[in-house]
What does this fold into?
Amino acid sequence: MNLSEITPVAQDYLKAIWSATEWGDPPITTTALATRLGTTAPNVTDTVKRLAAQGLVEYRPYKPVTLTETGRAYAIAMVRRHRLLETFLVITLGYSWDQVHAEAERLEHAASDELIERIDATLGHPAHDPHGDPIPTVDGHTHRPAHALRLDTAPPGTYQITRISDADPQRLTRFRDQGLTPGTDLGLTERTTNGAATIAITPRHRITLAPDDTAAIWVLPH
It folds into this structure.
């Protein structure tokens, strides 16, 4: 899959469309895609129509946008590139996990396939990026944990954090300071109907999380 065959704009769109559904959410609408990419709905509609003409997406007015088989292959290749770059920035260059998303967004369009594969080999073929997102394999295989659920939907019990959304760098900084990172064990002691939750990391370390925070954390039951 040669990503140079499509434009950087197409790369961004395909990656965003695929990533929107990776953790079980429904296909993305053009309005939501505009918000995600920081542009206008008319611009998104025009671009999506061009992508449809290239056989990369399925588009119908007023319906969510979905990927064709070819579009999905390009999207997963971009996701792999992005997450390997994030991991390289953290492990090799000492970036913090709240800094790498924007940096990887800039680098992913310029990096060659050879560079990405050398990064992968140098890092020992990591399975996850710093936020817990699975890194697709070179042949396009993805491996999201089958039993992962969002903390705002989880019943009281004991869990391990498997993934934290990287959409908000300030939240990532706060979570790091609170000890909430992938691999952290926690006990969910109470959850309200609006999605807020009280969690215990240790018997003396309890945190109350707002609904937006619990919606940003994916966990695996113990």
Summary: The chain is about 40% helix and 15% strand.
